[in-house]
Design brief:
Shape: elongated
Structural class: alpha+beta
Strand order of the largest sheet: 11-12-7-13
CATH class of the largest domain: Alpha Beta
CATH superfamily of the largest domain: Ribosomal protein L6
Number of domains: 2
Largest sheet: 4 strands, antiparallel
Helix content: 10-25%
Order of helices and strands: HEEEEEEHEEEEEEHE
Length: 181
């Protein structure tokens, strides 16, 4: 059995879990999310605790991996609908900035044109300051993917560190060219 899969998932107050066949739906104050389970995994609800159990051979490596994966996905769903996920981004560079336009964000990133970014329906992008962004949503994977897509618009470069980076990211700097003596 997977060590991660063995851990029970605590369901906080205000979160409800519906199990119908192979489908599990989690609802909370932030929204709702659902997942379809693989045949080798079962989910049982015992009061305010969810347990993920193996339905097939415990010695099969793929089944043990699916056990831990489904437990992690369900735990992230419970966290997402109760408190949500967020990623913070920073824009570094002279003249680099972001501006909110309703749900979309317009970036000035040193190109000859501005870049318009439209996030998916269930993800919100907030411009806190012209150089600080916050990506929020209930699905951890989608929040991370949207943040990565924004970062990809102008990744940080190693010489001056200009570009879009995560708030806690450290950029390895390179030395520039040295002149002749």
């Amino acid at each position: 059995m997977s060590r991660t899969g063995k851990k029970p998932i605590q369901i906080p107050d205000g979160v409800s879990v519906e199990i119908s066949g192979r489908s599990v739906t989690v609802k909370g104050k932030m929204g709702a999310d659902s997942i379809v389970l693989m045949d080798c995994v079962n989910v049982k609800s015992e009061g305010n605790v969810l347990r993920v159990e193996i339905a097939g051979d415990e010695n099969d490596k793929r089944i043990r991996a699916a056990h831990g994966l489904h437990r992690a996905l369900l735990a992230n769903m419970v966290t997402g609908v109760s408190s949500g996920f967020e990623k913070n981004l920073e824009i570094v560079g002279v003249g680099y900035r972001a501006q909110q336009q309703k749900k979309d964000v317009v970036f000035q990133l040193g190109y000859s044109h501005s870049v318009l970014f439209s996030p998916p329906e269930d993800i919100s992008v907030e411009v806190l300051e012209p150089t600080k962004l916050k990506v929020k949503g209930i699905n951890k994977q989608k929040v991370g993917q949207v943040a990565a897509n924004i970062r990809k618009l102008r990744p940080p470069e190693p010489y001056k560190g200009k570009g879009i980076r995560y708030a806690n990211e450290r950029i390895r700097r390179k030395a520039g060219k040295t002149g002749k003596k």
